[in-house]
Amino acid sequence: MGGLTMDQAFVQAPEHRPKASVAEADGIPVIDISPLFSAAAGDGGRAGVDALAAEGGRGSRDWGFFVVVRHGVPADTVARAAEAQRAFFALPPELRAAVARSEAAPMGYYASEHTKNVRDWKEVFDLVPRQPPPPTAVADGELVFDNKWPDDLPGFREALEEYGEAVEELAFKLLELIARSLGLQPDRLHGFFKDQTTFIRLNHYPPCPSPDLALGVGRHKDAGALTVLYQDHVGGLDVRRRSDGEWVRVTPVPDSFIINVGDIIQVWSNDRYESAEHRVAVNVEKERFSIPFFFNPASYTMVEPLEELVGEESPARYNPYSWGDFFRTRKNSNFKKLDVDNVQIAHFRKT
Ligand SMILES: O=C(O)CCC(=O)C(=O)O
Ligand SMILES: [Fe+2]
């Protein structure tokens, strides 16, 4: 059962508990992005790419979500990562515990994440596909991004390294798509990712005896730039629909990734796009697996609306903030229950 025992720590406030039945999300764009990979995006190709960018832009604006298919990540690569994930969570507890995360070294295994100070019904394993350069001085509370690899799990590291490389390639393509959709040069955002703080999370949601009270992940918005999410066939991801504020289920589409606009893109775009509030419902019978790839810029990035997108007509809506500080504060508050609210981009919104 994954070793979780239902208790008060998991119980959501009544207004945040999932309803017994939830409608399927209808209208999230599903985009075949294969034209992005054909060499000649010039001439005729250019119009096709512009149309894709418009679709991605529509999803980012209306939902904060879109789905991509024919995305260039080989099915075998995804299958190997998903298999490695299952094998890891099937390890005996002591072998999982051997790679446990700590507050200062946040990579590795963890079964006690909190979202907004309520415990999530899940266990995770985090890794970085690329190690960001170490800070010049390890200040108080500085995070150390060293991977912890389990012993006795042949092929685990290789499968995830292969996955990380392939998904990173996709993430840069999507960044290009988003830049185009905002009327920017395709490579406008690439520079922010030179020393990226991207991490990959393996999520395991064991069956839960009280899916009416607990959530796999409580309601939240992803703090980074973009999330490239693999989910298995079980389903449980809910997104809050903009039109009426209802929670709706994102139906699994085979061989797809869900692309999730994060807070940083919301700020860069000066609110043209909005990060989506989402959560994960659990169920009594089935375990569920997902793998978000959190595509995050360098820790020294000062996040602020892009200068091309501000002007007299649309003044900057946010004050600049340090991604490194934001990330560290959020990570630490997910590690344990605190008595203060999570840091949110709303804190940097100009009044
Ligand atoms: O499991 C999922 O589908 C989504 C997980 C998620 O939102 C997260 O880990 O931030
Ligand atoms: Fe998320």
UniProtKB/TrEMBL annotation:
Work out whether the entry's keyword set contains Oxidoreductase.
Answer: yes
Keyword terms? Iron, Metal-binding, Oxidoreductase
Co-factor requirement: L-ascorbate
**Molecular-function GO terms, alphabetical:** metal ion binding; oxidoreductase activity
**According to the lineage, what is the superkingdom?**
Eukaryota
Q: Which InterPro entries match?
A: DIOX_N, IPNS-like_FE2OG_OXY, IPNS-like_sf, Iron_ascorbate_oxido_reductase, Oxoglu/Fe-dep_dioxygenase_dom
Task: Enumerate the spans annotated as Fe2OG dioxygenase domain.
Answer: 196-297
Q: Does the keyword Transmembrane apply?
A: no
Record family assignment: Belongs to the iron/ascorbate-dependent oxidoreductase family.
Q: What is this protein called?
A: Fe2OG dioxygenase domain-containing protein
Source organism (scientific name): Oryza brachyantha (malo sina)
